[in-house]
Amino acid sequence: MRLGYAAGMEEKLQYRQRVITDSDVAFIRQLLREHPAASRRELSKKLCQAWNWVQPNGALRDMVCRGLMLKLHREGLIELPPVRQVPCNPLAHRSQPTVVSVDARPLQVKLSEIQPLEFRSVRRTPEEPLFNSLLEQFHYLRYTQPVGETLKFLAYAGQRPVACFAWSSSAHYLGCRDRFLGWSDQARRKNLHLLAYNTRFLLLPWVQIPHLASHLLARMTRMLSGEWERAYGHPIYFVETFIDPERFRGTCYRAANWTVLGFTTGRGKNAWSKRPNRPIKEVLGYPLRRDFRELLSV
After folding, report:
1. Contact, 251 vs 230, CB < 8 A?
2. With 60 as the cut, is the pLDDT of residue 78 above it?
3. What is the pTM of this model?
4. Which of 24, 47, 74 is the last residue of a domain?
5. Cα separation values, 103 from 107, 109, 159, 178, 206, Å
6. Smaller CB count within 10 Å for the chain: N or C?
7. Which of 11, 128, 31, 17 has its CA nearest to residue 81?
């Protein structure tokens, strides 16, 4: 990320979907001069407040702001105060989920015989360790801590869990998705929080029930926007997921009417070399409203 030059125009850079001008850099320098005794954390909070830089739920974008200020410091554009302490990074030293025992007897019945099925939102509840444990034990990608806005669901047949769903914030840039939605860069930056990414879908291995996966997926998408609004104060209009075509066909997604949007580039968000560094995934998407393009393009 470096400042770009254009004749007759103000110098600009972009950081995490926010355009930063040289006027913004000058504002940050003034903020530093006005608060010489403030820590880096205090300064980032003051900048968030001054810019009204907040998440959709109203919380300050403190960590993102600190990253911006550190980037400007490393570029020599501002001078931050010395680091006062180096806190432990819980994400870098996160322990594996504790194994939680569960009834793993084979469940082989007709779909009609296990109704009604119940969905439980388990993030920050006593059932969250069970959710994390099931993904760690039985999903091929195992459990990873999601970032950004996130929801976790367990689907139950009676007292027995049968499936897990994990959702999180969507990818900032995804060419095939962005072309499908037809939105501008400005609309994408404004409305990206109205999309969600299905990071994990696990049907537990001892559950052998025809059509259950697509049935659960269809029900999950019908309820997701309301659950998201309760948790974060805004709805969801479109969802996406990635499928590894060397492992799966994504049959349940196709049966639930998800659309194949294209493929990833295989570069990932940190691939500055622009060369593929990970498996290429198939991208599938599903609109939660008929007028999704109109809602996401304003």
Report:
1. no
2. yes
3. 0.71
4. 74
5. 10, 16, 10, 42, 10
6. C
7. 31
69 within 8 A of 31, measured Cβ to Cβ: no
d(CA 201, CA 250) in angstroms, rounded, equals 11
The pair of three-digit structure tokens given for residue 23, joined into one six-digit string: 């006027």
Domain check: are 119 and 206 in the same one? yes
**Phi/psi of residue 44, nearest 5 degrees:** -65, -35
pLDDT given for residue 145 in this prediction: 85
Read off the tokens for 267: 């570069």
Dist. CA 111–CA 116, nearest whole Å: 10
Strand order in 117-121's β-sheet? Answer: 117-121, 150-157, 160-169, 195-203, 238-243, 282-287, 259-263
Residue recorded with tokens 């082989």? 108
Pairing of strands 195-203, 238-243: parallel
Structural domain containing residue 33:
12-74
Q: Please list, residue by residue across 169-193, b when 16 or more beta carbons sit within 10 angstroms of its beta carbon and e when fewer do.
A: bbbeebebbbebbebeeebbbebbb
